[in-house]
């Protein structure tokens, strides 16, 4: 099923934190690749946590017309700091670091995200913020799943690197439904996303 044919229906979503409402009877239809936009603190990350099933404390419903399998780039990089970039990516595939097929796939993705072969063997604890972000992105791309959730995936990247990575993600994940959380419409445009939800 192509991304355009995957649909998510959110109906009457109500969610509060300590009696502070985040959503009140919020409804939306997601059909095809979609950017979830809004200023900081308005509930973008909360919405994708609900969609992915990481937050179940809400009222309303989230329904899919397909069986979703999620791979996610969180706001936090969530890397194994003692592992190399290559080991981080193979771990996301559920493969050991000596699995030849997994290593080759991981190398290709990391190289496409501008992580050099030399840096791929270094521990990510020594990486810059932008390099760590690209490893987190590589992990999500390497993992199985038919829905790719990207929560501000390009933060910390300069304009040229962001454009390069966005173009690669668009091509590599062309068979997945992409949910992009961003406050920057230009990021959605870089990925060819034309559907928007405001929160």
Written overview of the protein:
It contains 7 helices and 8 strands; from the N terminus they run E-E-E-H-E-E-H-H-H-H-E-H-E-H-E. The chain is globular, with a radius of gyration of 17 Å. Helix 2 crosses helix 3 (100-112), helix 2 (85-92) runs parallel beside helix 5 (129-142) and helix 3 (100-112) crosses helix 5. Strand 1 (7-17) and strand 2 form a beta hairpin. The mean pLDDT is 93. It has helices spanning 44-51, 85-92, 100-112, 117-120, 129-142, 159-172, 185-190, and strands at residues 7-17, 20-31, 34-37, 59-64, 70-73, 147-151, 177-182, 195-198. The strands form 2 sheets. The protein has a 5-stranded parallel sheet with strand order 5-6-7-3-8, with helices on both faces. A 3-stranded antiparallel sheet has the order 2-1-4, covered by helices on one side. The chain has 199 residues and is an alpha/beta fold.
């Amino acid at each position: 099923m192509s991304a355009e044919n995957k649909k998510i229906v959110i109906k009457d979503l109500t969610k509060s934190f300590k009696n502070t409402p985040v959503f009140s009877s919020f409804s939306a239809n997601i059909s095809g690749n979609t950017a979830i936009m809004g200023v900081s603190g308005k509930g973008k990350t909360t919405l994708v946590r609900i969609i992915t099933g990481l937050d179940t404390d809400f009222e309303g419903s989230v329904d899919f017309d397909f069986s979703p399998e999620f791979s996610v780039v969180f706001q936090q990089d969530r890397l194994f700091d003692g592992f190399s970039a290559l080991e981080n990516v193979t771990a996301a595939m559920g493969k050991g670091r000596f699995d030849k097929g997994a290593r080759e796939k991981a190398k290709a993705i990391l190289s496409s995200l501008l992580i050099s072969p030399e840096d791929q063997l270094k521990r990510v604890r020594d990486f810059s913020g932008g390099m760590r972000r690209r490893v987190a992105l590589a992990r999500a791309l390497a993992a199985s799943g038919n829905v790719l959730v990207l929560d501000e995936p390009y933060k910390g990247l300069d304009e040229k690197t962001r454009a390069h990575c966005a173009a690669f993600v668009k091509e590599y994940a062309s068979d997945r439904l992409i949910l992009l959380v961003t406050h920057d419409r230009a990021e959605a445009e870089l990925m060819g996303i034309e559907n928007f939800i405001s929160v």
